Amino acid sequence: MASLKVYSVGRLVKYVTDSSLRLRGNIYRSSVSRYSTEEKAAEDASGDKQLPPTLEDCHKQIETLSTEVSSLKQQVKDYEDKYKRALADGENVRRRMMKQVEDAKSFAIQSFCKDLLDVADTLSAAADSVPDSAQAQAESAAAALRSLHDGLRLTRAQLDQVFARHGLVAVSPLREKFDPNLHEALFQQEVEGYEPGTVVTVSKVGYKLHERCVRPALVGVAKG
After folding, report:
1. What is the C-alpha to C-alpha distance for residues 54 and 39, in angstroms, rounded to an integer?
2. Where are the beta strands (DSSP E) in the chain?
3. Most buried pick, 17, 21, 113, 186, via CB within 10 A?
4. Averaged pLDDT score across all residues of the chain
5. For residues 188 and 221, is the Cβ–Cβ distance under 8 A?
6. Whether the model pTM is above 0.70
7. Three-state SS at 23
8. Domain locations in the chain?
9. Residue 106: Cβ-neighbour burial (10 angstroms; 0-12, 13-18, 19+)
10. What is the mean pLDDT of residues 52-67?
11. Structure confidence by residue, pLDDT tens digits, 137-163
């Protein structure tokens, strides 16, 4: 008898629970349906309000939108032009900086080379001060003089090799056309067999470092 009562109570509880769940589901579906209907009606009403009332207003709105589109297209074009110019300017700056860095590397020793030119001139003068004929006579008279002369020539040759290794090249423009970028005219004179503007005398050899003039050659030029 007790078991029957428990069974009856259990079925009653299950029935009440199922009924409550079904009621909640119906209420939820009804609310969702009502909300969707109201929302759709509100959107339709809002859409109806946004539409122009007349055909003329539609044309005006289209013209306004077309004007805005044209303005935006022009802005986009202007921004593209500015972007391209900025890229070009950046590339030019990059190239100039690279050129400056390369020049700095190439001409970093320019002042040092210029200071050595006087030393080279002195060595050349010392080596050329003893002609070959005098050297032959000195061989029997004083072997020390010959040794000194050979040492000067060897030192001068080594110095020329060092200059060439670092891009320092001598400029001795005898019988060449006068170049104001590389030569400095000390005087002009009429010389037979030379065209006007031709270098006839080199008083002092010039030098250039990587095609840049470090010291102009001091020359005499034929006068027309």
Report:
1. 26
2. 168-171, 183-189, 199-204, 206-209, 212-215, 217-222
3. 113
4. 75
5. yes
6. no
7. helix
8. 61-106, 109-166, 168-224
9. middle
10. 78
11. 655 556 767 777 777 888 888 888 888
Dihedral angle sign, alpha carbons of residues 135, 136, 142, 146: positive
- How far is residue 109's CA from residue 8's CA, in Å, rounded to a whole number? 112
Q: What's the average model confidence in pLDDT over 27-34?
A: 56
CA–CA distance, 121 with 202 (Å, rounded to integer): 13
Is-contact 204 180, C-beta < 8 A?
no
Query: Which amino acid is located at 19 in the chain?
Result: S
Q: Please state, in angstroms and rounded to a whole number, the distance separating the CA atoms of residues 113 and 156.
A: 15
CA nearest 130: which of 120, 142, 118? 142
Q: Contact, 150 vs 179, CB < 8 A?
A: no
Decide: 215 and 172 in contact? Cβ < 8 Å. no
Q: What is the Cα–Cα distance from 120 to 127, expressed in whole angstroms? A: 10
* Tokens read off for 82: 């500015």
* Alpha-carbon gap, residue 111 to 118, rounded angstroms: 12
Q: Tell me the backbone φ, ψ of residue 104, rounded to 5 degrees.
A: -65, -40
Does residue 183 contact residue 217 with C-beta atoms inside 8 Å? Answer: yes
CA distance 173 to 109: 24
Does the domain at 168-224 match CATH 3.40.50.1470? Answer given as: no
